[in-house]
Fold:
Amino acid sequence: TLNRPRALNALSTGLFRELNDALRQLDNDKGTGAIVLTGGEKNFAAGADIKEMQDLSFSDVFKTNFIASWSSTIPGVRTPLIAAVNGHALGGGCELALMADIIYCSATASFGQPEIKLGIIPGAGGSQRLTRAIGKSRAMEIILTGKTFSGVEAGRWGVAARVFDDNAKCLEEAMNTAEKIAGMSSVAVKAAKEVVDKSQDLPLRDGVEYERKMFHSLFGSRDQKIGMTAFAAKKKPEWSNE
Structure:
């Protein structure tokens, strides 16, 4: 849970350092089958901490590769990550949500990339992931004007998998989905996540070939035998996660 209520859950290098450490620990924990990331009732994360960056120069940000750490860890996390978004997810908060594998949000949530109003642009993947999610024209309008879009629109445009009228229901259902994912074979889950992620990087023909090779490889797992044997016997599989 992101918890900087006095700063509206504004994101900073220090917060991301803690978040990345926590995600790495969970990803390496064999008992963790899925991760849910959420914030507060009013703010998932209302952008970056401007106080941290307002006095930085080009040399400062270029030499330290500033903000790179904000988006370097999450794409490498192999455990499925669900973002439960209530309230504002703006700037870096929107970018953080877009890095998740699944987004659930409340109808009253708001998303956006308002960096243009500060004389800058998104720096942690917003221009790339948002464009892939909603298309060039919509992304261009949002990024060039700094306008926000609602949780309802996020669901309609395919940014969010599900939209809820109630904030508590959003988190509850995110936890339920995480529990369902954690109840699957972790080998198959990681393989499924990997091939879907590859769809964002590879041309269609290469992606289909990659998927087929991953599909073939799962026939070397114990869980493929367990799952198919249980299905044939009309029993619930007891996964070995091997």
